[in-house]
Design goal:
single chain, 556 residues, alpha/beta, TIM Barrel, Oligo-1,6-glucosidase, domain 2, Immunoglobulin-like, 3 domains, five-stranded antiparallel sheet, 18 helices, binds 1-O-alpha-D-glucopyranosyl-D-fructose, binds calcium ion
Length: 556
C-alpha cells in the first residue's frame, strides 16, 4: 500500500446547522465554525468534513442542493466559506465538503427546466417516465417511504427519487450530467478544499432497464437494495470521476458506501481506488431489517466486536477504512453501543478507545468527544428528521402502539445526532443566543465542552489524549500502519486486539460492568491509555474494572 498524506490524520465531522450560531438566528453557520477553529485545532483535528451548506430548501437538511455554486444564506456567504478554508489552513486543517450528486433539489434550475420541457436537454438530466394512471413505472420504495415515483409538475411524466420527493435523482448515464458534476468538483477544489465526503454514491448506478422486484412489505413495494444488487458497472462512473477530479489534485475522497462486495474493495479503496477511503458501516447496519426500524435487532457488545473485526479483516492492508462511532444519520454511539443503563464516563471512554485504535482513519462526529447522548423525545411532533417521521408511520402500520412507535423513533432518529452542540452550561448550551432550530438536549448542564475542557478526567480530555497518542512520533507508525490482530476473540464481553508494527500495542476493553480477568501474553512496557487511575494486577493477570480500557505497549 502506498503511503498517502492523509493516512495519519484525525478527521472531525461538523453538522453546520447545529454546530455554532454566530448571529442569534438559531441556526449554526460558517462564521460560527470559524470562531471554533481554535477549539478544533487544540483537540488535534486535521481534517474537517462539513455536511452540506450549499443553497438548499433544506427539505433533507441540505442534502437537497438547489445551487452547487453558492452557499445558503442561512449558513453564510461564499466569502465566509473562503475565509473558513483559509483560516483552517493556517491551523493545518483542511476542509472537506459534502458531495451530493446522486440527486439535486427539485428547486434546482435543472429540474425547473425539465418541468418546462421534459423532452429538452434538461429532461435528460433526470429519470423521467410517462405517467400511466394507476400504474407506477416500478414498484421501488424510496428510502424515506412511499414509491420513488412522483408526478413531474405541469407534465404527463413522472420522475424518479430514491430519497425524498424533493430530491430527484440525476441521470448519471447522461454524459452531460457527469460533466456538470466534474466541473463543480474541480471548481471547489480550485478554491483550496482538501477533498470531499461523497454522499449516497452507490445509488448513482441503476439497474437498466427498470423493472419490478419481489415486494417485501404489505405496501407491495420493494427496497431499493433489490435494484442496487442487480446494478452493474458503477466502476465506470467512479473511475471517470476520480480521473477527472480528485486524482489531479491529490484530494481526499471518502465514500459513503453501503453493501460493497468483498471483491470490490481493491477497486474502491486500494492503491488508485475510486476513493481514498470509505466508511465502515458494519456496526451501524447490524441487525437492520427490510421491515423498518421497529424490527431492528439491538446490537450487543459481542456483536459490536464481531462487526469491527469482520470489517477489518475484509479490508486488511488493501486500503484504509474510515472508522466512525456515529454520524448525522445515526443515533449517538454511546446510547447505541453501550448496554442500557451502563452509559457512563468510563464506558464512553472504552468505546472511544476501542474504535479509535482500529486500523483506519478515525472520524469524530461533533459532540462525540464530549460523550453526547441521545435526546429524550416526548412526542412525534418534536421530531424533525424526515426518515424518523416515516419510520414512525411504518411502526404504527405494523401494529405498534403510538407509545411503542415513539420508543423506536427515540432510539434511532437522526435527530439524536443533530441536536445543538453542547458548548457550555449557559442558556441553549451556549449554541445560540436565539431560539435553536432543534431542541437542545436537556443534559447540557452536565455534558458540555466548557466543563470538560477543565476536567482532566473528562471524555473530552480522553479524546485529546487519544489524538495526541496517534500523533506521537514514537507510536504513530504502529498505530497508523500496524497490522490488526484480534486477541481472545471468543471471550464474552471482551474486545481486544494487537496493533503490530515497529512496536507492539495491545488494546483491551472490558465491555461490561462486572470485573473481568485477562492473562497478558507478555509483559507490558508502557501504559499508553487507561480510563481508570490504576491497573489491578498480579503475576501478569489483570483484573479489569467494569468498562476499563487499556492501551499497552508490550514487550515484543
Ligand atoms: O445518506 C444515505 C443513506 O443511505 C441514508 O439514508 C442512510 O441509510 C440512513 O440515513 C440511515 O439512517 C446520505 C446522507 O448521509 C443523509 O443524511 C441523506 O439524507 C441522504 O444521503 C440523502 O442525501
Ligand atoms: Ca446563524
Amino acid at each position: 500500500m502506498n503511503k498517502k498524506w492523509w493516512h495519519d490524520k484525525v478527521a472531525y465531522q461538523i453538522y453546520p446547522k447545529s454546530f455554532y450560531d454566530s448571529n442569534g438566528d438559531g441556526i449554526g453557520d460558517i462564521p460560527g465554525i470559524i470562531s471554533k477553529l481554535g477549539y478544533l485545532a487544540d483537540l488535534g483535528i486535521d481534517i474537517l468534513w462539513l455536511s452540506p451548506c450549499y443553497q438548499s430548501p433544506l427539505a433533507d437538511q441540505g442534502y437537497d442542493i438547489s445551487d452547487y455554486y453558492s452557499i445558503d444564506p442561512r449558513f453564510g456567504t461564499m466569502e465566509d466559506m473562503e475565509r473558513l478554508i483559509a483560516e483552517a489552513k493556517k491551523r493545518g486543517i483542511c476542509i472537506l465538503m459534502d458531495l451530493v450528486v446522486n440527486h439535486c433539489s427539485d428547486e434546482h434550475e435543472w429540474f425547473r427546466k425539465a418541468c418546462e420541457n421534459p423532452e429538452g436537454k434538461y429532461g435528460k438530466y433526470f429519470y423521467l417516465r410517462d405517467k400511466k394512471e394507476g400504474d407506477l413505472p416500478t414498484n421501488w420504495r424510496s428510502y424515506f417511504g412511499g414509491p420513488v415515483w412522483e408526478d413531474l409538475p405541469g407534465t404527463d411524466k413522472q420522475y424518479l427519487h430514491v430519497f425524498h420527493r424533493k430530491q430527484p435523482d440525476l441521470n448519471w448515464e447522461n454524459p452531460e450530467v457527469r460533466e456538470e458534476v466534474y466541473r463543480n468538483i474541480n471548481w471547489w477544489l480550485d478554491k483550496g478544499l482538501g477533498g470531499f465526503r461523497i454522499d449516497a454514491i452507490i445509488n448513482i448506478k441503476k439497474a437498466l432497464p427498470f423493472r419490478d422486484y419481489e415486494p417485501d412489505r404489505e405496501d407491495g413495494l420493494c427496497s431499493i437494495n433489490a435494484m442496487l444488487t442487480e446494478a452493474k458497472g458503477i466502476g465506470v462512473f467512479l473511475g471517470e470521476m476520480r480521473d477527472r477530479t480528485f486524482k489531479k489534485y491529490d484530494a481526499f475522497a471518502v465514500g459513503e458506501v453501503f453493501n460493497e462486495k468483498p471483491e470490490e474493495i481493491p477497486e474502491f479503496i486500494g492503491d488508485d481506488g475510486y476513493f481514498s477511503s470509505m466508511f465502515d458501516f458494519n456496526e451501524a447496519v447490524f441487525g437492520g431489517s427490510e421491515k423498518g426500524w421497529y424490527d431492528i435487532t439491538p446490537i450487543t457488545p459481542d456483536d459490536y466486536k464481531k462487526c469491527c473485526f469482520e470489517a477489518q479483516a475484509r479490508v486488511g492492508d488493501i486500503g484504509f477504512l474510515s472508522n466512525i462511532i456515529e454520524n448525522h444519520d445515526e443515533p449517538r454511539g454511546v446510547s447505541r453501543y453501550i448496554p442500557e443503563g451502563d452509559c457512563c464516563i468510563e464506558s464512553k471512554k472504552m468505546l472511544a478507545a476501542l474504535n479509535f485504535m482500529l486500523r483506519g482513519l478515525p472520524f469524530i462526529y461533533q459532540g462525540q468527544e464530549l460523550g453526547m447522548e441521545n435526546v429524550p423525545i416526548a412526542s412525534i411532533d418534536e421530531v424533525d428528521d424526515i426518515s424518523a417521521r416515516d419510520e414512525y408511520q411504518v411502526a404504527l402500520e405494523a401494529g405498534l402502539s403510538s407509545e411503542e412507535a415513539l420508543k423506536v423513533v427515540s432510539k434511532y432518529s437522526r435527530d439524536n445526532a443533530r441536536t445543538p452542540m453542547q458548548w457550555s452550561d449557559e442558556t441553549n448550551a451556549g449554541f445560540t443566543t436565539g431560539t435553536p432550530w432543534l431542541k437542545v438536549n436537556p443534559n447540557y448542564l452536565s455534558i458540555n465542552a466548557a466543563a470538560q475542557m477543565k476536567d482532566e478526567d473528562s471524555v473530552y480530555s480522553f479524546y485529546k489524549k487519544m489524538i495526541a497518542l496517534r500523533k506521537d512520533p514514537v507510536y504513530k507508525e504502529t498505530i497508523v500502519y500496524g497490522a490488526l490482530e484480534p486477541v481472545w476473540a471468543e471471550r464474552h464481553n471482551l474486545m481486544a486486539y494487537y496493533q503490530k508494527g515497529e512496536r507492539t500495542l495491545l488494546v483491551v476493553g472490558n465491555y461490561q460492568r462486572d470485573e473481568q480477568e485477562v492473562k497478558l501474553p507478555t509483559v507490558y512496557k508502557n501504559v499508553l491509555l487507561n480510563n481508570y487511575h490504576d491497573i489491578a494486577q498480579e503475576n501478569g493477570t489483570v483484573r479489569l474494572h467494569g468498562y476499563q480500557v487499556l492501551v499497552l505497549e508490550m514487550s515484543a
